[in-house]
Automatic annotation (TrEMBL):
InterPro entries: PAP2/HPO (IPR000326), PAP2/HPO_sf (IPR036938)
Transmembrane in keyword set: yes
SMART domains associated with the record: acidPPc
Name of the protein in question: PAP2 superfamily protein
Signal peptide interval: none
Gene3D superfamilies the record matches: Phosphatidic acid phosphatase type 2/haloperoxidase
Membrane-spanning intervals of the chain: 45-65, 72-92, 112-134, 141-162, 168-190, 211-233, 253-273
Record bears the keyword Repeat: no
Originating organism: Micrococcus terreus
Keywords: Membrane, Transmembrane, Transmembrane helix
Domain Phosphatidic acid phosphatase type 2/haloperoxidase, chain residue ranges per copy: 73-182
Length: 284
């Protein structure tokens, strides 16, 4: 939880309070804006509907699991974590993490947008589902849920609603409250947080370590790839908000950074909850 707070403050410091960070994201957003203007109407419709569809899907899955497993206390805690994450995002965006208007050529019309509300809603809804499923299903749920959450993050960037750092901050807010909720859930229902005893040769498909590995690899590759795109675009020397030319590298980098941190956040959650789940005591 402390790590999530530290990373969020670092992202704010680098991408919001510095001129270089603001110009970097502005050029990525310019590139997305130019491509959005040429996007077919069907693509725009999909992008607009994606946040709502993904979030509603996660909420419905959460309700089904709650009724099916009858984990009322765990579900209440997960729901409180979901609400706290969304409330935190609004407080950070409107009260605490205010965006300075620097004299660097970056327009201020978008105002303060960190963290992304759409991405927080989707990520926190998925985290709530991860918290209430059985331990043997958590890794798979985290991996599939990460696709939903990061799809919303990618969609909000492609639709030019938010900058990449907004999505990264939203994932961290969801992670903070997911870990807080997990701390309570794993300590108040030991019988619900115990993995069945299985051999290494026959792990449960929903809890296979491959899910964790896929999240870690995907998150590292996309995040590092986004940084490489920045360097391939010319690095700091190529940053100029007055130039109307939009770089494909800035566009791809912004898209990758809108996704990668989310995959890493869910990789941490999946691995941490795996380590924290109990095992049956040995007989005799």
């Amino acid at each position: 939880m402390l790590g999530a707070v530290a990373l969020l403050l670092a992202i704010f410091q680098v991408f919001v309070t510095t001129s270089t960070g603001q110009v970097t994201e502005h050029m990525a957003l310019q590139a997305a804006t130019a491509r959005l203007e040429t996007m077919p109407p069907l693509g725009e419709t999909v992008l607009r509907l994606l946040p709502g569809v993904s979030a509603v899907t996660a909420v419905l899955v959460f309700l089904v699991i709650t009724v099916w497993r009858r984990r009322w206390l765990a579900s209440a805690i997960a729901l409180a974590s979901f609400g706290a994450a969304n409330l935190t995002t609004q407080l950070l965006k409107k009260v605490i993490l205010l965006r300075p208007d620097l004299d660097n050529g970056v327009p201020y019309y978008t105002g303060n947008s960190l963290p992304s509300g759409h991405t927080t809603f989707a990520a926190a809804a998925v985290v709530a589902v991860v918290l209430v499923v059985a331990p043997r299903w958590r890794p798979m749920t985290a991996a599939l849920g990460a696709l939903f959450a990061t799809a919303v993050g990618a969609g909000t960037f492609l639709e030019t609603w938010h900058r990449p750092s907004d999505m990264a901050a939203a994932y961290l807010v969801a992670a903070f409250w997911g870990l807080a909720g997990g701390l309570l859930i794993l300590r108040t229902g030991a019988e619900w947080n115990t993995r069945a005893r299985r051999t290494a040769r026959h792990p449960h498909p929903g809890g296979h370590p491959g899910w964790d590995i896929a999240l870690w690899l995907g998150g590292l590759l996309t995040t590092v790839g986004g940084m490489l795109c920045y360097l391939l675009a010319g690095g700091r020397e190529a940053l100029d908000p007055a130039v109307p030319w939009t770089s494909g590298w800035h566009y791809l980098g912004g898209l990758l950074v809108s996704v990668g941190p989310g995959l890493l956040v869910f990789a941490v959650l999946a691995s941490f909850l795996r380590w924290e789940s109990g095992r049956p005591a040995a007989r005799g």
